[in-house]
Please model this.
Amino acid sequence: MKLPLINKLSAVTGVFARLNPMGLIAKLKSRKKGGDDEEDDDRDFRPSGSDGDDLFADLGDLDELDAEAREKAEEDGEGDFDDFDNKELDEFDEHEFDHQEGDEHDPFDDQALDLDEADETSADSASDQVMKDLADFDIGDGFDDDDEEDDEEEAQKAKLKKLGILAGGGVAIAMVIGGLSWWLLGGDAGPQSTEDVAAGTHAPVPDGAGGLVLNLDDFAPAPVPETAAPALSAPGSTAPNFGASAPEMPATTGVESATAMPVEGMSSAGDGAPQSELGRLGLDVQMEPGVGVVIPSTTKASYENLTPWPAAEPLQPAPLDTLVEPSEHGLLPKIDVEGNTPYDAYARPEPQTKSGDPKIAIIVTGLGMSRATTEAAISITPADVALSMDVYARGLDFWVKRARTAGHEVLLNMPSESSDFPFSDPGPSALKALATPDENIKKLEWILSQTTGYFGVLSVYGSKFLTVEEQLKTVIEALKKRGLMYVDGGMEDSLGSRVAYQVGAKWATVDLTLDANPGRTALDLQLQELEALAKKRAIAIARVSASPLALERLTTWLKTLDQKGLQLVPVSSLANKQLIR
Model:
């Protein structure tokens, strides 16, 4: 078991002895000391025959040395060379390498393998280091294409950055130059006084502005010539004088009037004449220059071809002191201590009629917003036609008195929430379906306080609100407590008449809207349908707007009622006489 190991160790020992490492080290030291320059340090240690520096010269021929060793061993009689035991091996503890019998594993074999693997690893490491050095080696600008592309990309980015900085600087300089030019060349016109503006020497310029701005509202009104034409008056006659007790112009509520305020010191009768009732109420059509141009949809000329209806006996003045009470919004109607109601006091008396003739009632709606339209509806229609005033109109007290003086009974529009808002807009004070009952009562009180002298209300819009029974019941009960009549506007699916009947209030329902479809032919067809409906039910109620075409067709048709066996009556006379549908 020991012979292979001894042979191997002997071979290794012989190789190291023949290499003579101590001699090699001595030669290296002598060369290092004797070198005079850097070239001596960098010389290769290659064998040279002339210098005797061949490091491997003393090794000789290994085969010859082995043969001599064999011969010497045989002469000494020490047996076979294979059994040769080198004396240097005596220093080793041979028991240290003994193994039990049957152990085939030789640790020195493993060590020999480890030495081989270490040599291979060292060789691989050296190869890797050489390849790494070659990869890092750079000649001139280098031969790595990736580094060259990276350098070009960085150079391009640097150029773009410089161009961006230059562009930004140019924009900033342009802005500064533009601002300085505007400041220096924009003119020195500052805010002028009102006198300068009125004199026309300077145009008004807002504070801090550098440009020229014209505002027509800042110009003084043009002087009125002495031969100024008188303002428009009511059709047929001058506006009636109600004496010193005529009401002042009420505060603006809801929608603003389309007419402009009159010029101070002017009157509807001309310069120097006392101011008329329309002028005192702010309903004069004089336009102040610079305010703007308002073109109404209808004017007095729109109705000039219509013939006024014969005058009727006026109704009693309103309001009656016993039938009103003050509130935070204004006067509200009420029932007096004797049980008299606004309905009884302000409704037009029922005319003498034939018991068998069908009865028809007409309501003209949306009045008060236009002066020409309201005046035409008052003067052109017969007194038995009821007039309904828009709650958002200005000067409602004046128009109610004008209507009652001509013999018309008056209703007040009661707007409520529509289902197609904003296409049908009932305004800011409309009754809401989802509001609390207290909120709707407050809105109702605001509506009722806008004027006096009306006998009831007409529901307008309300396609959503009029379908909520609980809300309707609260509102109609409040109307009943104040002695007013409820007239349902005829909206589809409305529960107003049914609820009014249940709570015991005065009520009526509009059956037809005559101008729901515009046009002459459509109006004539609706009037024919109204005739047929009146003959079928004995009672029929219709509503219509005060457009020139509608009033022209309506008045023409009303003149034929006697021939057709029909009778026109006030809508108040038909309270609680229709069937619930």
About this structure: The mean pLDDT is 74. Residues 485 and 506 are 5 Å apart (CA to CA). The first helix runs from residue 3 to 19. The two ends are 130 Å apart (CA to CA).
